[in-house]
Amino acid sequence: MVFGSSGVVQAKKLLRRSLSGSRQESSADVPKGCFPVYVGEFRKRFVVPIAYLNQPAFQDLLIQAEEEYGFDHSNGGLTIPCSEYEFNLLTAQLN
């Protein structure tokens, strides 16, 4: 996977397709410039900045999510296939 500008465009397309079926009420409490993701065994909800889409490590998670879940996310948001602990470590590095 190329992580240059074409990788960012591809990541945004993956996110857009994944969230296209999102419930309206779940997007009401998401600040502008952010999007919700669900992580871990109990699908804990996190709200992350769109700027994460530029990060290769986050792009890898999006690719894993596409491979594991496709674009049909029954909970109305993007499900990330990793533990909450791993996700917290990643986002701490990105901040």
From TrEMBL:
Superkingdom in the source lineage: Eukaryota
InterPro entries hit by this protein: SAUR_fam
Gene Ontology terms describing biological process: response to auxin
Family (UniProt): Belongs to the ARG7 family.
Name this polypeptide is given: Small auxin up regulated protein
